[in-house]
Specification:
Layout lengths: L7 E4 L5 E4 L4 E6 L4 E7 L5 E7 L4 E6 L4 E5 L5 E5 L16 E4 L5 E6 L2 E6 L4 E7 L3 E8 L2 E7 L3 E7 L12
Antiparallel strand pairs: 1-2, 2-3, 3-4, 5-6, 6-7, 7-8, 9-10, 10-11, 11-12, 13-14, 14-15
């Protein structure tokens, strides 16, 4: 593995460790054999983040290339590309995906991209909401009925956005 820029490791449903790296690939390690089992290739720039979607035996990666990709952990194939830049709901977007998070049902994906935050309905493959934040989004997470966005100005600030998961997930400022 060359060009390792950063590592963001998780444990998937298979008991393997998945990691995002600076060479535009994600890697799956066999913990027992201490070797690389699979390389997930498809991004055109380094990866910022990775999250497990264990209920579907998938991982999702976010990249400097501006996309999030959903990967099948059994085959290593990319099965869906999420491109926040192409969605018309997002007015001010930066060309990278810096952070991603799944809700507890693993049906909703939050993507942080510069000063933009978007929420995606994964079963419908659509962006249902997007907002511009006051500063670059460093991290996102779901907590019950809200999305938390960690932004950076001169110090770390946590912004909370309430969400309603009924027919559609909506974001709005408190």
């Amino acid at each position: 593995m060359s060009g390792l820029w950063g590592l963001d490791a998780i444990v998937g449903a298979t008991g393997s460790i998945f990691a995002a790296s600076g060479d535009s690939c994600a890697y799956c390690w066999d913990v027992e054999k201490n070797e690389i089992k699979m390389v997930l290739k498809g991004h055109s720039d380094y990866l910022h983040c990775i999250v497990a979607r264990n209920s579907h035996n998938q991982v999702i990666t976010g990249s400097e290339d501006g996309t999030a990709r959903i990967w099948d952990c059994r085959t290593g194939k990319c099965i869906q590309i999420i491109d926040p830049q192409k969605d018309k709901k997002l007015k001010e977007l930066y060309p990278y995906v810096s952070c991603i998070a799944l809700d507890a049902s693993e049906s909703w994906l939050a993507c942080g991209s510069g000063r933009s935050l978007s929420v995606w309905n994964l079963p419908a493959s659509e962006c249902v909401s997007g907002i511009t934040t006051s500063a670059a989004t460093q991290d996102v997470s779901f907590d019950d009925n809200q999305v938390s966005s960690l932004t950076y100005i001169k110090f770390q600030v946590v912004l909370m956005f309430p969400v309603s998961v009924q027919r559609e997930l909506q974001l709005s400022f408190l």
